[in-house]
Amino acid sequence: MAVDNRTPRVGDLLTYVLTITNQGGATASNVRVTAYLPDGQEFAGSGDGLSASDGGVSGGTASIPAGGQVSVRFTARVTASKMGVTKAQIRQASPADVDSTPDNGTDNGEDDTAQVDLRSLTGL
After folding, report:
1. Exposed/middle/buried for 86, CB within 10 Å: 0-12, 13-18, 19+?
2. Which one of 76, 102, 113, 123 has the minimum C-beta count within 10 Å?
3. Which residues contact 108 (CB under 8 A, 6 or more apart)?
4. Domain that holds residue 102
5. Which pTM value belongs to this model?
6. Is 89 contained in some domain?
7. In what order do the strands lie in the sheet with 69-78?
8. Is residue 124 part of a domain?
């Protein structure tokens, strides 16, 4: 996961990019991902089919070939001057990932999670 500005000001729009990589030997299908915005940010839109749902910003892709990757983007508006961490997890994929469990949280060290921290600066 990446964000275009880690020190935004109140009112700024942030662009997040979630890159989902399939390192397995089979095509992954029905892949669903959710990013969870920290307090002080709100979902502002996506051209990649993500929407505010499932307690965060969610969406997916029909399939990712073995060795392939897909990136999805969304924007969030900074609404308050706060530090925060945006976290994401794979919530669903088929076939099952042998070394992680989909939809079991973002703070478990598994390879189906990601996070990025940022600090909002006081607006002028």
Report:
1. buried
2. 123
3. none
4. 2-119
5. 0.91
6. yes
7. 2-3, 13-21, 69-78, 41-45
8. no
Residue 23 CA to residue 48 CA, distance in Å, equals: 22
Q: What is the CATH number of the domain that holds 115?
A: 2.60.40.10
> Which one, of 71, 40, 38, 69, lies nearest residue 56 by Cα?
38
Task: Give 6's DSSP letter.
Answer: S
pLDDT of residue 124: 45
* Total tally of structural domains belonging to the chain: 1
Kindly report, residue by residue over 59-113, the tens digit of the pLDDT.
999 899 999 999 999 999 999 988 899 999 999 999 988 888 888 989 888 889 9
d(CA 105, CA 112): 10
